[in-house]
Please model this.
Amino acid sequence: MKTELQVPSKLNFLTIVENWLLSSLEVELGEDIDWPRQSNRLRLVLAEAYSNVIRHAHKDKPHLPVLIRLEIKDRNIALEIWDYGQGYQTGDYNPPTPEDKQESGYGWLIINRLMDSVEYVLHIDGDGRNCLKLEAIMPDKAN
Model:
């Protein structure tokens, strides 16, 4: 199953995005998933990724849409978040450490810890978009 959602670059659309994602997953995957646990995991990842687009990639361009794509195959989910920002060099990322008392940089750490695969691709197509590709295998209730 494949589906996508295009939303404005506004934080007040986060609930709509979360509901779309979780509803799509529940319809497709059914009751064999530990939904309380998995929905918390996916909400946090989505909130970090979506808010990063709004706060960083589209901060001077709130009129640009955010495109979110979801593909489900068996228990594998692939989520893509597309933006029109300048992009971010992931090789320059230094994870925060408690002793540094850093105020930012935790989102990328959280996303990488909670997802099975994370890839950020800069300027994929001719219109200058970037894509954050997230993948996870949804465990059943027993796991």
